[in-house]
Amino acid sequence: MEAQIKKVILDAEKAAAERNTEALEQLLHQDYRVIANRFKGSTGTTIMSREMYLDLMEAGKIGGTPYATDFKNILVHDHTATVELLWKANGKAAMHKFLALVQDENNQWKIISDVPVVL
């Protein structure tokens, strides 16, 4: 199962780097949320819905940066997984991410939440 989970995450990273919202729609759960606390200097917490995330991606306001993914920890329990990873850009740590994934009714892994921490 870990290989399937890694593939979904790597495919999502590639789609975000390419701002390919059609591909992302297939990888993100319908209830997907980004939960960003004090993201890039803000003082509050931002919770972004799947629709908001995809709209910002289409507008070119987020995404567009390719990252190398370093998986730190993957925990799987039945149909739910949590993943800790580090994204690197130009060989330097750029973002620490905590993802939650769930299997849908067809047993396909989908990313349901993303908690990014910019380094």
Structure description:
This protein is an alpha+beta fold. The protein has one domain: Nuclear Transport Factor 2, Chain: A (Roll). It contains three helices and six strands; from the N terminus they run ααββαββββ. A six-stranded mixed beta sheet has the order 2-1-6-5-4-3. Helix 1 runs antiparallel to helix 2. The model has no long low-confidence stretch (mean pLDDT 95).
Secondary-structure element string:
HHEEHEEEE
CATH topology: Nuclear Transport Factor 2, Chain: A
How many domains? The number is: 1
pLDDT average, as an integer? 95
Oligomer: single chain
User: What CATH first level would be assigned?
Assistant: Alpha Beta
Helix content: 25-40%
- The total of beta strands comes to 6
How many individual helices?
3
The low-confidence runs, each spanning 5 or more residues with pLDDT under 50, are none
Give the spatial strand order of the biggest sheet: 2-1-6-5-4-3
Spatial shape: globular
Largest sheet: 6 strands, mixed
Structural class: alpha+beta
User: Proportion of β residues?
Assistant: over 45%
Per CATH, which architecture?
A: Roll
How widely separated are the two ends? 29 Å
Radius of gyration: 14 Å
